[in-house]
């Protein structure tokens, strides 16, 4: 492996890891704070990707197009969806057995998959990257690297920093952290925990959908993309330690690198590497790398 | 009151088993095959119920033990003649139990969601071994050309013989697990589910109990895998995929956790619902979108039946006569 290939793989790994982080962050927030094991999280990623595909002609017709208007409209729709779902399907489940929520989110996966099939169909689609990001930059003598992948990495990194700021420096972040530690105490201090939950859930859905939207141009849009990303994101969340944003970030990068280089160096064992890694880490540290208690 | 309730449950299970025993009299060959499949899933679901509902250990890798039982049954069968049942069946159960011992010994160091994911990881490893290596025939799987026999007494090529063979194991598994859960061992498992720390404080070393439950569960899953391989005559890696592990969890939650009969009811309900929504006689062209109906039914079940289908009589009684439902132990993951 020469240097430029190595560099390209590094960039790919970084981009994949950062994208995983966006999806996994929603998952870890929803689990860490609300205690909901959300199997439908992968579906939100799928919904985002399909929105990037299905919304672009509509947006082009109404506003004269533009990649960013699709992103913004998709994001607004995702927030509304998350807010509605929390109200309709989760708000009455919090004092129930955790596994009841698993059952509920499993039902939601089936519903979302079929709605997708009814509305958009079962075909595989490609989504074009916006023109000004469609080029490549030279890397070494003969290699080039697509600008759009760098754009994904940059956006994810910015979002991660933004989330870090919200979490550690703002009042909302403080309430969210407090809510994950002790729900009753936060409630008794006069904070509307129901509203807080609804915001967290909507934010989680929006993050996953956003990740789906911006990744649509590099990974085609296909049925079943949700369940694939779901399991790998659970791996990220668990390795990082549930509820820990920092842990999820490091775990996502770790998985990104292990998976990308695994596919290059050990193609026959690539599928299993991630799981071996998770098993080893959890046997070494049974509560993940960064436990928040 | 308690006795009456208890005998009501036994009556239900007795009637269910009797009904299943009489079913071949009226069954079509399709129905016979379908119900054989469901009975195997019911055995598998009961094995998972021992871990999830009775001990509070949510295992997300049950399909691996199922698959190992099935693969061992096929791989140990001679290629040109029938293998002997009395050695193939124990071998399949033993292999699954040994892998369960390995997985359990390691993964029981973790708890809650971490436990879920470690069991998934080990199941995925087994999946990739048969999927990506030459060992298990790769993605195509392997065929079992000659079904195991017991001398000339038992010919499993007949669907009806196979049906009763499965039925016997279903009843056996139910009775075995019911006795196990009623014993001292089962009471300790219930104690671990409700409050493990308190069990330790009262002098129980909980780890060996949990490991024993895990190995027992894996062995029964291996039995189910053996039955499935014999029924279908072939095995493929999808038997070990996490989709099956997930579907099994859904079955036992749907049926009602904490009750053995819940696992059986859940397996039947889940497969019947699938078949119902897939039926093009009822839904016509819309049967293609069967997951929509199944999804909404599951959501409705969660909303209306907090204890799963097992709690249905109680919900109905409450609707009719009023009164508060009794509280059940919960499984909390965190």
UniProtKB/TrEMBL annotation, chain A:
Membrane-protein topology: Multi-pass membrane protein
CDD domains, per database record: TM_PBP1_LivH_like (cd06582)
InterPro entries (UniProt xref): ABC_transp_permease (IPR001851), BCAA_transport_permease (IPR052157)
Protein location: Cell inner membrane
Any single GO CC term annotated in Swiss-Prot or TrEMBL for this entry: plasma membrane
Bilayer-spanning residue ranges: 16-37, 70-94, 147-167, 195-217, 229-257, 264-284
Origin superkingdom: Bacteria
Record's keyword terms, sorted: Amino-acid transport, Cell membrane, Membrane, Transmembrane, Transmembrane helix, Transport
Chief location category: membrane
GO MF term (any one): transmembrane transporter activity
UniProt keyword Hydrolase present: no
GO biological processes: amino acid transport
Similarity-based family: Belongs to the binding-protein-dependent transport system permease family. LivHM subfamily.
Official protein name in the record: Amino acid/amide ABC transporter membrane protein 1, HAAT family
Source taxonomy: Bacteria, Pseudomonadati, Pseudomonadota, Gammaproteobacteria, Thiotrichales
Automatic annotation (TrEMBL), chain B:
Cellular compartment(s): Cell inner membrane
GO MF terms held by the record: branched-chain amino acid transmembrane transporter activity
Residue spans crossing the bilayer: 51-73, 85-106, 112-130, 164-190, 211-230, 242-272, 292-310
Keyword Membrane: yes
Membrane topology: Multi-pass membrane protein
This protein's GO CC annotations: plasma membrane
Keyword hit for Thylakoid: no
UniProt keyword terms in alphabetical order: Cell membrane, Membrane, Transmembrane, Transmembrane helix
Main location: membrane
Identification of the protein by name: Amino acid/amide ABC transporter membrane protein 2, HAAT family
